[in-house]
Amino acid sequence: MPSFHRLVRPLTADDAPAYRALRLAGIAELPAAFCTTHALESSVPMAQMRQRLLPTSNQIIFGIFDDAQLIAMAGLRREAIAVVHDKASLWGVYVAPQARGQGLGRQLVQAAIDHACAIPELATVRLAVAQDNQAALTLYLACGFALDGAAPQDGMLHLQLRLPRPAMPAAKVPQSSVFLKIKPLRIPAK
Question: Which of 63, 156, 170, 176 is the most exposed place for a label (fewest CB within 10 A)?
Fold first, then answer.
């Protein structure tokens, strides 16, 4: 199928029914790729699903629609703990079967990377992918991700992408963007 560009946009609370439908379809098709079960995700109240879709300083979920149907999605979650606030995770990447082969996965991953690059203190985007999911692994490697060197855990490979500029030093991070600050451990000299 030919590759073409579709509009990638952040999802909003109004997209919750479409998001739920696509997420449940993804979990049914590839249960190992999601960190939940179909039963658990089905039981999430719609109000909570709407709340999940509200963009925050720590999370955003992107989507691509074909008319009114959500056909692709990906989330980017920034670590809220101060000592790892320079890392974000790419998660929930899924393209509906009928929309595959059109470059939509690449568009979503690139939108997430572009968003991460706009956050000065972020230095790394991480993700986990099932080691037998060759299509996803090929996509992530083509987008610049590299294996992090750790052995696969529970059939999952861990990849990371170093963002193409230095992270903001922790001393310059606005306090409003830090969810939890941990004091450094000081060991007295002998």
Answer: 176
CATH architecture of the domain formed by 8-169: 3-Layer(aba) Sandwich (3.40)
Dump the DSSP string for 7-58: -EEE--GGGHHHHHHHHHHHHHH-GGGSSS-HHHHHTS-HHHHHHHTS--SS
Q: For residue 97, give the amino acid letter.
A: P
Q: What is the pLDDT tens value at each position of the chain, 190 positions in all?
A: 445 568 999 999 999 999 999 999 999 998 877 878 899 999 999 999 999 999 998 999 999 999 889 999 999 999 878 778 899 999 999 999 999 999 999 999 999 999 999 998 899 999 999 888 999 999 999 999 999 887 888 888 999 999 986 545 544 545 444 444 444 445 555 5
